[in-house]
Amino acid sequence: MRIRCIFLRRQQYKCFIFSLSLLVVCLLKLVHIKATVKNSFFIEPYGVTANVYRVQPPAYDINCSAIYQMDPVEVGKSLEIRRKDIVDLDDDNIVSLTSDCLGYIQSRGYANLPLSNEERQFPLAYSLVVHKHASMVERILRAVYMPHNIYCIHYDRKSAKSFISAMENFAKCLPNVFIASKLESVQYANITRLKADLNCLSDLLGSKVKWKYVINLCGQDFPLRSNYELVAELKKLQGANMLESSRPSELKKQRFKFQYMLKDVSFEYQKLPVRTTHTKAPPPHNIKIFIGSAYFVLSREFVSYVDGNPLVKDFLAWSADTYSPDEHFWATLVRVPAAPGAILQSQPDITDLMSRTRLVKWNYLEGSLYPPCTGKHLRSVCIYGAAELRWLLNYGHWFANKVDPKVDPVLIKCLEKKLLEKQRLMVKLASR
């Protein structure tokens, strides 16, 4: 009997110790969650980010007008936020958010966008070549979306399943958004990146929407003009195209004078084109090579000329084993005399600061051509910060690269807010 009592007391003691340990662990976890929430910033504008993680984060009342005016207090708030752990919705969250199409469309305001008659009569097309971060793709799509425009999404065949599901949900929920009929496994600086855009362009030409211009975007771009403003700017082109086109330096000529082969690498890109010792034959049809960037704003007539043209087909085949062919393909074709809206070959270079397609800030030109980056750099390119809001909106370009909510969520929030305000104002004035 005594032995049995001793055994029971030991068991009770063990239960007590276990319960006490469990209580301590729960308390520590609660303290950790509170500390994490306190030191986190949950990205808007979804209004559901915090709910997804079942927390109540501290509120930040950001005054975007004050940030535009470079108010030091408001800019300081954005810097404080950047020091926190920035929490965004992951791809699975976006899949869940877009699974209820009606709820998604209503929550993100797709159904009541301000739109003028001038815009309706001048529809635009977009080619979005993306591969990760569904939440950022959604922000870009929402920022450029209008119900009369048309949008092609090309996702990388290597993308995560949840990302692909999110892209397919966008196409399911929005009637003027579709997935490219042919998908590439995109490799960095390879012909596959160019083919991704070409696949979308071909599909867009076949759509029922008779768009006037097409614009290509990647996953770190963001508009700097409302749709109303952009249409007004594009009308001024009168059928011309907007993109970079410059004469190549001797260093840049190496990109297409030699053959390049894809080789496996052990870091971010997995495969990279590596130069071989084999020199290439001259370009077909005596084409004179110009260089630029992958970014373009092209007229429908120019895209129709490119689609199925024997010269273009031969030039594409010749470019297949060059380095980053998308950075010479469009810049060269826009100089072909027979191309609609062609730029004369004798015309001076059109640089990135002259072309309004993309505002990119390079670290080695900061201080001379533009003010220093207030965000951070990635491969010499600035990822913009909130303190650059005014500069971005006033410089004159139509889109910016690069933006990243994990670097500065306030900038994206303020760009969204400012563009929507401008759209509403322009439509209101046009209706008078």
TrEMBL record:
Which family does the UniProt entry place this protein in? Answer: Belongs to the glycosyltransferase 14 family.
What keywords is this UniProt entry annotated with?
Glycoprotein, Glycosyltransferase, Membrane, Signal-anchor, Transferase, Transmembrane, Transmembrane helix
* Recorded GO CC terms: Golgi membrane
In terms of Pfam families, this protein maps to:
Branch (PF02485)
What Gene Ontology terms describe what this protein does at the molecular function level? Answer: acetylglucosaminyltransferase activity
Cellular localization per UniProt: Golgi apparatus membrane
The answer to keyword Nucleus applying to this record is no
> Carries keyword Glycoprotein?
yes
Q: What is this protein called?
A: Beta-1,3-galactosyl-O-glycosyl-glycoprotein beta-1,6-N-acetylglucosaminyltransferase 4
Membrane disposition: Single-pass type II membrane protein
- Pathway involvement of the protein, from the record: Protein modification; protein glycosylation
